[in-house]
Request: fold
Amino acid sequence: MKRRVVVTGMGAITPIGNSVDAFWDSVCAERIGFAPITYFDTTDFKCKLAAEVKDFDAAQFMDKKQARRMEQFCQFAVAAAKEAIEDSGLDMEKEDPYRVGCSVGSGIGSIQAMEREYTRLEEKGPSKVAPLFVPLMISNMAAGNVSIAYNLKGKNINVVTACATGTNSIGEAYRTIQYGDADVMLAGGTESSITRLGIAGFSSLTALSSSEDPTRCSIPFDKDRSGFVMGEGSAIVVLEELEHAKARGAKIYAEVAGYGCSADAFHITSPAEDGSGAARAMLNAVEDAGIKPEDITYINAHGTATHANDLFETRAIKLAFGEHAKDIKVNSTKSMVGHLLGAAGAIEFVTCVKEIEKGFIHKTVGLQESEEELDLNYCRESYKEEVKYAISNSLGFGGHNASILIKKYEA
Reply:
């Protein structure tokens, strides 16, 4: 028998708020996090806008010595994990630390460290490269630092599946608890890649929007969409085996009910054009949850605002759900926070949990008019209604498809 897994805590550092409450208030108010890039001079760059985290002070979440030994993507993760643990009421002094694990991924790690140390190498020679360069840079250090900060001695993994990282990280934590390898897992994603090299690379790939209008730069499913806007931040959740959560009197936000994955085996950057891979991931999640496709009434889409993603994801939803697709509400949180890459699926998971908790489906902000084939309900307005089931989709370069299904908790 697979064990039931519930969500008992959440934390978030985002472009529209540095806590779950601040983030959710901004979502409900339809605030956007897009503004001119402040981290470097964009004069020679086609892309001028990003969704930066604002007013983040690592010292509010950890001591300064700790912070100095972490790049920003790790600082974001440790900060979000702190909120999630405190929100959950988990007392590690009362837990067996070997039954509490960590599954926190980053799609890239620290581009900042790469840029900085390469410059030192070129200008000053190999002896001047920082001794901690490698452990500061590599993507698994978010999971490593979270486990060290909070004494998590159970399974510790770093899933890297590009833009599907956050969803896969939470999904693998869910599986870990389901099959008894842990009782509690901290899970999620983190990213901080708004750098000269990061922006230049995605721009050369023609993946980024070149719009200089913050209200029309990240516009998923709109006929005028021109690419995604780079975001940054982290979201971490506490997943817990149901009986363990009940035994300690934990608040239960929602239940994780299904997880599905697939590969397009098609192209290194483009999703499969017929949507078959993403469709299979969604149906795998539905089957895992033991429900019918017709039970799904809401999907938080990957919805990047690139021409290919939004079209092919629409085809995937139609392929998976047939005629029922027209009755499903589909939105994109990236319309407010941009694309957080390895953290995207994690913040969208938090969004789904809040929508289930509050009975509220947020608007796809900025969406005005869709093209002919994009004919689903992409939430041009918000809805106040019960959300019993939510699917969150993430699609990553390399053809990685991941869907996680969350449901309203019922004892």
